[in-house]
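Dear support,

I submitted the protein below through the web form. The confirmation email said the job was done, but the results page showed an empty box. After a refresh the structure appeared. I'm attaching both so you can tell me whether what I see now is the final result or a partial one.
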Amino acid sequence: MHQPTTMTSNRGNFSFSRLMELLNGRWHKRASYAFLVIVAAHWAEHLSQAFQVYSLNWKLSEANGVLGMFFPWLISSEWLHYSYAIVMLVGLIVLRPAFQGRSRIWWNIALGLQVWHHFEHFLLLLQALLGTTFFGSPTRTSILQLFYARMELHLFYNIVVFLPMMVAMFYHVLPPIGEKTTPTCSCAWHQKPAV
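What the results page shows now:
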């Protein structure tokens, strides 16, 4: 018989299923807001890079966003970009069970778009690890980068994942009156908190 994965702590065994229950129950509001901060901070980095290129007329090689100004190696680290894509994907998967009704539909849209975004970053990381390029390109490239510039494409990816995620959060905290759901968390403003 399969035993649940457990983590040992000072309080005894703590199962993965218990962690998921907490993240989609009592801790969901805090976990969702923490995740939102991570997503917004990353999006702000992409926006600042676009601002540096289009408003300040910096060369793309100089436009490293805010963090990249202090840590220039970050902008070229495929590991960093891929790690963010994984964090985003895991966050969307882990927090998904608490989203119900209309909010679940929008959360699923964000998740589907992030699966593709993650795949594109996986291709870029794979090229960096193999020391080669794909698709006959002189530089590391993803599939849609064959048609669109990397900076604009990844800014677009972050926007199209962020927007349905925000719609999902809106419907999660303000579910339509009469929508039949069984809340597992206390995020909704006009429903009784989950016990």
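Response: this is the final, complete result; the empty box was a page-load delay. Residues 26-173 form one domain.
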